[in-house]
Amino acid sequence: MREKRSQFGSKLGMIAAAAGSAVGLGNIWRFPSETADGGGAIFILVYIFCILLFGVPLMVAEFLLGRSSRANAAGAFHKLAAGTQWKWVGRVGVLSGFVILGFYMVVCGWTLDYFFQSITGNIVNATDFGAHFSSLLDNKIKQILLMLVFLLLTAYFIYAGVQKGIESSAKVMMPLLFLLLIVMSIRAMTLNGAGEGLAFLFKPNLAEVKSTVFIDAMGQAFFSLSLGMGCMLTYASYFNKETNLIKTSIQVSILDTIVALMAGIIIFSSAFALTNNTDTIVSELVAGGPGLLFITIPDLFNQMPGSAIWSSLFFLLLAIAALTSTISLMEVVTAYLLEEYKMTRKRALQYIVSGVFVLGVFSAISSGFFNFLDIISAKFMMPIGGLFISLFVGWYLDKKIIQVEITNDGSLRFGIGFLKAYSFILKFLAPAGILVIFLYGLLG
Ligand code: PFF
Fold first, then answer.
1. Whose CA is nearest to atom 12 of ligand 1?
2. In angstroms, what is the span from residue 441 Cα to ligand 1's centroid?
3. Does the CB atom of residue 103 touch ligand 1 within 6 A?
């Protein structure tokens, strides 16, 4: 039987869900390792530039597509541009959802492992955290099982539906995570020697600039804000008529950026403070790659009294932040199968879980495959998706729809000048910016 379309029940729930999608492993795991790789402060500056130029305007674009069509990623283009090929933008978005889940779930599995290892006290007793992480990477079966647990957990919440599953979980979990990050930032910043880590983060060093910094930062911005693949579009299809799209996109972007910066502060303060060889620290950070978080954080906790408790709490909340993101990823694919193929939630989930499991097994077995999925989604599929969404709303979509959605049919005051400026960004600035960065990244 077809489901009735749901909506988020409250304003807080809606923000928590959208922010819950944005805030995830992208902020706490991927952002620090990209920052280390991108030379610190320079990367962060370019990143913030990308959030402002592409992030906020494109989030509004996805919001207005979702709310005006009340449909899934592909269905929205079907409805708003019937009989054209624009639906492919949505279809490729759904595919990106699969691709991201295929490697993201593996990292989710790592967070579960670290959570279990923290409550049993194993992590606290370790001395070489690098070796500890490597031994997890070597244990493929364990990684696959943990990934499967996380996959089923996500599917459980999706099965429960929009209000009960997504909204109620996000409302509780997001504020808790935020609080813990504040406590940890303070602890990390007050470590002896944390200053060098903070300088790496906030004092640009032009000697460190890499030619790929633009494409890396742009990819990170899309990834972190869940943009360019119809995720925010799908969530906005559950927004109610009163939601202020501009305000919401600004709030979500600010929250997301603050969490990423806090994660950076925690990780770099600890990494610089806790190593005795500052000459090699940057190269070690870069070499730490995907393991950075899992190596520096336990080390930080080791310096704190009650380390097992802190560590358990942190990895629990990290797993939860990851869960609100995997839920949003899976909802993109679910809504698509539900509406375009008239499937039941159960049947859709059977397909999704099987498909993601296969990708996840390959990512767990091969780091090459893992990196491939990461790079093709963040650096290719999402920015290109964003480019087309921008062109669609800027050039194709009826201006009336943009105006009605942004002003909530006249009840919010956004003047004509504002709408014109917004239109200009989507028509020219954002697409040109994405294209230039993209070509520069490919040729540079
Ligand atoms: N934004 C999430 C994070 O930063 O962890 C990852 C993500 C979620 C990407 C949902 C894309 C998406 F549709």
1. 226
2. 22
3. no
**What DSSP line would sit under 187-238, residue for residue?**
HHHTSTTHHHHHHHHHS--GGG--TTHHHHHHHHHHHHTT-SSSHHHHHHTT
Predicted TM-score (pTM) of the model is: 0.95
Domain boundaries, the chain: 11-443
Instruction: Establish whether residue 25 lines the binding site of ligand 1, counting it when its CB lies within 6 angstroms of any ligand atom.
Output: yes
22 lines ligand 1 (CB under 6 A): yes
Confidence grade of residue 1 (pLDDT, cut at 50, 70, 90): very low
Could you report the per-residue pLDDT of 182-233, keeping only the tens digit for each? 999 998 999 998 999 999 999 998 877 888 999 999 999 999 999 999 999 9
Q: Would the CA dihedral through 146, 152, 153, 155 be positive or negative?
A: positive
Q: How far is the CA of 310 from the centre of ligand 1 (A)?
A: 25
Residues 6 or more apart in contact with residue 441 via CB below 8 angstroms: 211, 212, 214, 215, 216, 218, 379
Report how far ligand 1's centroid is from the alpha carbon of 28 (Å).
Answer: 12
Residue 34 has pLDDT above 70, yes or no: yes
Token couple for 168: 């109620």
Q: Is 257 in the pocket of ligand 1 (CB under 6 A)?
A: no
Is the pLDDT at 166 greater than 80? The verdict is no
From 58, 101, 224, the mutation candidate for ligand 1 (largest count of ligand atoms within 8 A of CB) is: 224
CB atoms within 10 A of CB 208: 15
The single-letter DSSP state of residue 418 is H
pLDDT for the residue numbered 276? 62
Closest-CA residue to 44 (of 289, 252, 216, 278): 216
Task: Indicate whether residue 226 lines ligand 1 (CB < 6 A).
Answer: yes
Close Cβ partners of 404 (under 8 Å, ≥ 6 residues apart): 68, 410
| Superfamily in which the 11-443 domain is placed by CATH | Amino acid/polyamine transporter I (1.20.1740.10)
pLDDT tens digits, residue range 390-424?
Answer: 999 999 999 999 999 999 999 999 989 999 999 99
Residue 444 CA to ligand 1 centre (angstroms):
27
Mean pLDDT of the residues in the chain? 91
Kindly give the distance from the C-alpha atom of residue 327 to the centroid of ligand 1, in angstroms, as a whole number.
10
